[in-house]
Amino acid sequence: AEKSVQMDLESWSGIWVYCEFRGGNLATVALELLGVGRTLADARGVKLVAVLIGSETGDSAEKLIGHGADIVYRADDPALHYFTDEAYGAILTELIRKKKPEVVLAGATAIGRSFFPGVANALGAGLTADCTQLAIRAGDGALLQTRPAFGGNIMATIECPGSRPQMSTVRPNVMKQLEFDPSRSGEIIDIDLAPAMLKSKVRVLESVVSDSDDVNIQESDILVGGGRGLDTEKGFTLIRELARSLDGSVSASRAVVDAGWIGYPHQVGQTGKTVAPKLYIACGISGAIQHVAGMQSSETIVAINRDENAPIFNVADFGIVGDLFEVLPKLISKIEEHRKS
Amino acid sequence: MKIVVCIKQVPDAKDVRLDPVTNTLAREGVQSIMNPYDQHAVEEAVHLKEKLGGTVTVLSMGPPQAEEVLRQAISCGADHAVLVSDRAFAGADTWATSYTLAKAVQKIGDFDLILCGKQAIDGDTAQVGPGLAIQLDIPFVTCIQKIREATDTELVMERMMDDGYDVLAVDYPVLLTVVKDINTPRVPSLKGKMKAKKAEILVLSAADVGADPKKIGLAGSPTQVVDVFPPPPRGERALLTGSIDDQVEQLVERLAVYL
Ligand SMILES: Cc1cc2nc3c(=O)[nH]c(=O)nc-3n(C[C@H](O)[C@H](O)[C@H](O)COP(=O)(O)OP(=O)(O)OC[C@H]3O[C@@H](n4cnc5c(N)ncnc54)[C@H](O)[C@@H]3O)c2cc1C
Ligand SMILES: Cc1cc2nc3c(=O)[nH]c(=O)nc-3n(C[C@H](O)[C@H](O)[C@H](O)COP(=O)(O)OP(=O)(O)OC[C@H]3O[C@@H](n4cnc5c(N)ncnc54)[C@H](O)[C@@H]3O)c2cc1C
């Protein structure tokens, strides 16, 4: 890995999005990134390029064009069925070296945050982690990347003044996708895959997808979070019911994950997942800083807690002080009533 | 089995605030701790050493006081400690940090396995582990939640994914980053604490590890922090009022857009 100094910045052009594809599906964040990517590309007067890596990608490339891409580079091969850092990284690194884009984005997902750091390091490129805001400066094309750090206690804006490409991973659920437009046209280019590029020293033996309850909470628009105030594992039944009435998913504080009431994939916070749904309803969660760090960028936050001094009320847009065993059944039936009318 | 564990000293995140006037980090009175994920990395290393034999070397890049977390790791069973410390490292981003750590690892010599935490709770990037592996030209796997089998030649492990987990096998050398599920860190024994007190810590400068001055610290960092500011306020504390029935009614009205 060599760091390139004194680069000819002008020769790097185009906005790229790595479009995550796993288990037969495009990740929602890929479409969101095409949305913001379109804005950046138009501001720069350059092409928006999607990079699709996987196997049996079907009509995904067409879908990416309908969502804003001008060009799709596609690497579709049975050897790419499972994600590996080496193969996915080698393909993307090679493509970037050849085509020299100015910006490359990926979702800040398990996959994006794993292989993007390797790609950036190999290219000597700057990589900004887990961005929540992106803008481009007209004059020099500098990407202004804004991200939370210190567990969400501070925000930082980061630039890569002397190197290209400018790379970022971007948090799911913060950027807006464009509506699918079937009349959009674009070019699909299948990449030549040298056998060496498909190799990985790490061998995937099996990919275990958790049961349907374990949805990816980072992709949910509505989350109902349960904490120790639920008293017992059974308390989660109420949380699940509320989530169901809202077509949302269930998340949790670390206290209840540690207690074994629900699995770790549901944990929100500093040592769990960072989420930014449209609506987050915290039930019986005190609002410890480590929890708040993971959910404070939600669009609307509702808190239900019997302690009016609970810190969760400091980040809530709407709060109900009360016993959740009284409030939740009432809330569920009111919501159902509302949805029927 | 030669294992290297990278550990970072971090401010205890719950204490960190921006000074509203100067917009700099108010670090006054903020406690420094071992990055929580790195405690799990140390534990896993010591556990593997107990099973397979070998040594555990802990490595940190940081100011002189980072020695504290290295001693803490020794009290938990690590054998050797190396601190790479030099004013020239100041302002390092993840690229420059991985480069510097790679130089230090090469200086230390042979290794089979490198363990890192998934991420540091201050920078929060999770980029140093993968970057270090690329610098050393070895494979890496992030977010390991379990090592199922470890022999002298191979590891079988579980990598946490967003939708479940992958089961992977790999030969040495390899770099892994670990999440907290992997184990429960032990409490240091009295004997461990004594050993830590007396332990000699090898301190290396940029020149000692043969680092290129253009690739370290701020000068070697492609990313630059140009602005820091507090997160946008979430507005006023808005408790609903009235009977529980009234409050529920008001809430459903306000949430109508989501229903
Ligand atoms: C390094 C580190 C990392 C951490 N990472 C995380 C993390 O990622 N995520 C996380 O969540 N935590 C994390 N924590 C733990 C965190 O500090 C808190 O301990 C945890 O969030 C508390 O969970 P809780 O709110 O469910 O429980 P508690 O703090 O016990 O709060 C329970 C709340 O329920 C309310 N309540 C009780 N009964 C009722 C009722 N009948 N009706 C209404 N309200 C009721 C109480 O008033 C109280 O406010 C971390 C801690 C450390 C040190
Ligand atoms: C507000 C702010 C935002 C930042 N954003 C970015 C950014 O987006 N991109 C970027 O490249 N840099 C960024 N940096 C710089 C970055 O924090 C530092 O480079 C830091 O040295 C390493 O990154 P990290 O703390 O994120 O570690 P991570 O990559 O999260 O750490 C992962 C693991 O690597 C090991 N490790 C990390 N640092 C050390 C060390 N010094 N010694 C030994 N082991 C270590 C540990 O095992 C740790 O668990 C930012 C800094 C600040 C202050």
Specify the CATH class of chain B. Answer: Alpha Beta
Q: Could you give the order of strands across the largest sheet of chain A?
A: 7-11-6-1-4-5-12
Structural class of chain B: alpha/beta
Number of strands of chain A: 18
Taking all Cα atoms into account, the compactness measure Rg of chain A is 22 Å
**Mean pLDDT level of chain A:** 93
Mean pLDDT of chain B comes to 93
Report, as a whole number of angstroms, the end-to-end distance of chain B: 57 Å
Q: Based on DSSP secondary structure assignment, what is the total number of beta strands of chain B?
A: 14
CATH class category name of the largest domain in chain A: Alpha Beta
The main sheet of chain A comes to:
7 strands, parallel
Organism (chain B): Desulfocapsa sulfexigens (strain DSM 10523 / SB164P1)
Pfam families (chain B): ETF
Keywords (chain B): Electron transport, Transport
Protein name (chain B): Electron transfer flavoprotein, beta subunit
Describe the structure.
- The complex is a heterodimer of chains A (341) and B (259).
- Helix content of chain A is 26%, strand content 26%.
- By secondary structure, chain A is of the alpha/beta class.
- Chain A folds into two domains: 9-198, HUPs (Rossmann fold), CATH 3.40.50; 217-340, TPP-binding domain (Rossmann fold), CATH 3.40.50.1220.
- In chain A, strand 16 (279-283), helix 7 (289-292) and strand 17 form a beta-alpha-beta unit.
- In chain A, helix 3 (85-99) packs across helix 4 (110-123) and helix 5 (235-245) packs parallel to helix 8.
- Chain B has helices at residues 36-52, 67-75, 94-108, 128-136, 190-198, 244-254; strands at residues 2-6, 9-11, 17-18, 25-26, 32-34, 55-61, 80-84, 113-117, 140-150, 154-161, 164-171, 174-178, 201-204, 224-229.
- In chain B, helix 3 (94-108) packs across helix 4.
- Chain B is α/β, with parallel strands linked by helices and 259 residues long.
- In chain B, a hairpin with a 3-residue loop joins strand 9 and strand 10 (154-161).
- Chain B is globular.
- Chain B has one domain (2-223): Rossmann fold (3-Layer(aba) Sandwich), CATH 3.40.50.
- Chains A and B meet through helix 4, strand 7, strand 9, strand 10 and strand 13 of A and strand 3, helix 3, helix 4, strand 9 and strand 10 of B.
- One flavin-adenine dinucleotide sits between chains B (6-8, 35, 37-38, 41, 59-62, 92-95, 97, 101, 116-117, 119-120, 122-129, 223, 225, 228) and A (127-129, 147, 149, 156, 158).
- The site of one flavin-adenine dinucleotide (FAD) has 27 residues of chain A, from helix 6, helix 7 and helix 8.
- Chain B: Keywords: Electron transport, Transport.
- Chain B: This is Electron transfer flavoprotein, beta subunit.
- Chain B: InterPro entries: ETF_a/b_N, ETF_b, ETF_beta_N, Rossmann-like_a/b/a_fold.
- Chain B: GO terms for molecular function: electron transfer activity.
